[in-house]
């Protein structure tokens, strides 16, 4: 059984060798390196940086970011269901509709809970 994976292992070694040693290493050796003050200065969206890069952000910033990702990923599950709902309607139409209604209800309860706790308030 491990012998069956030998070609895959050899391919993986070849890919790593070409990627790290061949392309990156060769460009490092051959490519020109002309450091200037402008190249070495930090750049952020066309605006010169002001202050320390290690400033603390409020915890609320991260909570809102996590909530956005959580609800965004859960809403993505609605799209494939909506695409195949016509085919589901022939066999399991009412069951599929009930399952999605429960899913949306759980999302709504979670959203209302977060809203009531004040996690979406931006001060």
Summarize the helices and strands and which ones pair or pack.
Layout lengths: L5 H25 L6 H4 L18 H18 L1 H40 L6
Feature tags:
123 residues, mainly alpha, Methane Monooxygenase Hydroxylase, Chain G, domain 1, 4 helices
Task: Provide a short characterization of the protein structure.
This protein has helices spanning 6-30, 37-40, 59-76, 78-117. The chain is mostly helical and 123 residues long. The chain has one domain (2-117): Up-down Bundle (Methane Monooxygenase Hydroxylase, Chain G, domain 1), CATH 1.20.58.
Span between termini: 60 Å
Major sheet: size, sense and barrel closure?
Answer: none
- Helix and strand run: HHHH
Task: Tell me roughly what share of residues is in helical segments.
Answer: over 70%
* CATH fold category name: Methane Monooxygenase Hydroxylase, Chain G, domain 1
Supply the CATH class.
Mainly Alpha
Uncertain spans: none
Q: Based on DSSP secondary structure assignment, what is the total number of beta strands?
A: 0
CATH architecture assignment: Up-down Bundle
Write up what this structure looks like.
- α3 runs antiparallel to α4.
- This protein has helices at 6-30, 37-40, 59-76, 78-117.
- It has a single domain, classed as Methane Monooxygenase Hydroxylase, Chain G, domain 1 (Up-down Bundle), CATH 1.20.58.
- The chain is mostly helical and 123 residues long.
- It has 4 helices and no strands.
- The longest helix is centred in the last third of the chain and has 40 residues, at 78-117.
């Amino acid at each position: 059984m491990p012998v069956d994976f030998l070609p895959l292992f050899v391919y993986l070694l070849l890919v790593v060798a070409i990627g790290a040693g061949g392309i990156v290493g060769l460009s490092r050796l051959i490519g020109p390196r002309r450091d200037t003050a402008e190249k070495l200065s930090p750049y952020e969206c066309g605006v010169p940086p002001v202050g320390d890069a290690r400033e603390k952000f409020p915890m609320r910033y991260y909570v809102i970011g996590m909530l956005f990702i959580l609800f965004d990923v859960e809403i993505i599950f609605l799209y494939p269901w909506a695409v195949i709902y016509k085919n589901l309607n022939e066999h399991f139409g009412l069951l599929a509709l009930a399952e999605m209604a429960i899913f949306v209800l759980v999302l709504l309860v979670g959203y209302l809970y977060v809203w009531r706790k004040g996690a979406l308030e931006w001060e």
